[in-house]
Amino acid sequence: MRDRVAGLGLGEIRGDHALMTPAIGTMMQVLRGFLLLAWIAMLVTTVVNPSAVDGNAVPTTAVVVAVYALKFGWRRLTARLGVNRCYLCTDGVAVTNRFGRIRDSVAWSEVTGVQQAMIVGHVVAGHRIEIFRSSSAAPLWFVAPGAKSALVQALLQEGRRSGALQ
Predict the structure, then answer these.
(1) Measured between alpha carbons, how far is 140 from 103 in angstroms, rounded to an integer?
(2) Which regions of the chain are under pLDDT 70?
(3) pTM metric for this prediction
(4) Helix (H) or strand (E) holding 64
(5) Whole-angstrom Cα distance, residue 60 to residue 40?
(6) What 3-state DSSP class applies to 44?
(7) Are 133 and 111 in contact (CB under 8 A)?
């Protein structure tokens, strides 16, 4: 994947960060939350009335551990394959889609501004970032996961370093 980004002529890759697909990411986070709540309810039931559980705590714990292990494994695999990533380069920014292909890119020389909106809810938090261009092309946009996203700070730093942002 790094070879494809390097082939865009945006210079050296200075960092890559995960992006979030808003609908699927939120849905998976909600489902993991419900699973965790069900597991906590199972453990409380086991402590209060051990005979009511009939040995279901061990398989339930195994399912919860497997789901969270899959989550961390999926994060590592998608990073390795370049899926849903934002590559910050010395001369621009490139964003990949869910198949690891370049979705869009913009050179710092074309950037006229960056608009950021923070999305905070009970379940999910993130930053919606739009990079505006001097040409008539549509802005490059993406969603960075987390309330304190390292991508936002790195993007603004790279933009200032290149002179595109103030």
Answers:
(1) 9
(2) 1-3, 52-54, 123
(3) 0.77
(4) helix 57-81
(5) 10
(6) helix
(7) yes
